[in-house]
Amino acid sequence: MKKKIVGILTAVVLAVAGIGGAVAHALPPETEVTGIVTEHGNTVTGATVTVKCGATTKTDMTDSSGTYLVSFTAAQCPPGSIVTVSAQKGSMTGSKQGRIVGVTTKLNIGLVNVSIPEYGLIGGILAVVLGAGAIMYTRRRHIQGTSL
Question: Are both 105 and 125 inside the same structural domain?
Answer without folding.
Answer: no
